[in-house]
Specification:
single chain; elongated; mainly alpha; 75% helix
Length: 68
């Protein structure tokens, strides 16, 4: 993996972690339980994407089809 690829993956990781946190914070302000749960699932998906990018960066395998 080239250094520029690693830099891009690191940036993706940072963006996704930040976005997951933003969505969780938004969920706290939602009164509808179904909508809150949907937002929390979205945050969890961001975390899963980030986990895949971290595995890719560590050289433990290709990114999952969900990452990108």
């Amino acid at each position: 993996m080239e250094e520029s690829d690693s830099d891009e993956i690191l940036q993706r990781i940072k963006r996704r972690r930040a976005r997951a946190e933003e969505v969780r914070v938004d969920a706290e302000d939602i009164h509808d339980p179904e909508t809150r749960q949907t937002l929390l699932r979205i945050a969890q998906q961001y975390e899963l994407l980030t986990d895949g990018a971290e595995r890719q960066l560590a050289g433990l395998g290709p990114p999952s089809k969900a990452s990108g």
